[in-house]
Amino acid sequence: MKRVSIRTGRWRRSTVGRWPLAAPVVLALATGGVAGGGSMPAMAATDSLVLSGELNVQMNRLSYGDAAGRTRVLHRLDSSASNMRFKGTESLGGDLSASFYISAGLRTDTGTGSVCNRECFVQLAGGAGSIKLGRVLPIYDDVSLPWYFIEIQGNHNPIALWANCGNGAGMDRGCMDSFITAVRYDTPNWNGVSGSVSVADLSTDLQREKGSSHAYSGGMQYRQGEWYLGIAAQKQVDTRYAGARDNGLTLSMEWKGPVSIGLGLERLSYSVANGGTLRRDYVGLLLSHTWSTQTVWANAGRAFSGRGSAGPDAVVNNVRRQPESGASMFSLGYTLRLSKLTKLYGFHNTIVNDARSRYSFDTSTSSSLGTGRRVSSTVVGVSKKF
Q1: pLDDT digits 0-9 by tens, 5-60
Q2: What is the DSSP string of 104-146?
Q3: I want to staple 200 with a disulfide (CB 3.0 to 4.6 A). Which of 91, 171, 182, 301 is the partner?
Q4: How far does Cα 146 stand from its chain's mean position?
Q5: In angstroms, how far is the first alpha carbon of the chain from the final one?
Q6: Whole-angstrom Cα distance, residue 141 to residue 233?
Q7: Element (H, E) at 181
Q8: CA-based R_g, the chain, Å
């Protein structure tokens, strides 16, 4: 089985299998070659159609303190990381190619799903780089990967603090990292150096008047041997309210060795409707060690208290212009790979809120979470890719 790596939204470290027989069969059905009684369509050697995906189901125990100081515990079965993906590529001659990518979320726990709720785009690629049009992630997300381990998407990962995306926040609430309808250009790779820029009209995503909200992202990455360096900036215009200007800057590095080390730094800056600016800094660290079929990893992050020229009541999602309004997050996990496509995993995460903060993983805990309380999750799961 030939293997290819496919970028899968916030699961981009995934490696999936290519099914050589599935491609012509799916293409034949799509074009009516089989159903119409015709012959199987021919495919050029450089053309491909790949069906892949993952069923990822986990058992989760959430624990947090409410406003009254009581400890609440939630048990649930979750499959928010399960997905199916289609990718097709056509050679246009020389080094030019056209491709499409469609991803769909699957929920084995609820029996529901949604097409294009993750990355979903068409792409032209050649010697001058590549351009994507559709629902994509910006390079601001890319540069977080070296220090931002994600076993499952959505909950229980550093996005609860980094990019101010916890509690289920979107860009309309100050989150700096989300799937957006955009045009993204990526340069060719020059001796390990590459760059990317994207422009997005967010009015469709935010259900507003066309052209009323925008996001701009740009950055550069360097990959050479065991080293990685990245920098990215993002500006969001009129996303939280008319006149709002939200800015993010992320720096990252990674060194791959017996114990791999990843480090990330971020600064967020928000304009406030009543005047002034609200800022917050973040630092994240990832350590991981892999041997044989096993991996142990640890993640730590610190979101500092908000500051700036805004008034003391200024709040943007979890960022507050008050002392003791930061939070720390600690994670420890273990993965056992049973095969190239199947793994078992488990991890524990804890958010330690300062006296005036309410950082949380998602909306299931944030609605009744008390100020200054801890939130923890313990997860065990199995992932089967195809």
Answers
A1: 333 333 333 333 333 333 333 333 333 333 344 433 444 446 889 999 999 898 98
A2: EEEETTTTEEEEEEEEEEEEEEETTEEEEEEEE--HHHHTTGG
A3: 182
A4: 12
A5: 11
A6: 10
A7: strand 180-186
A8: 22
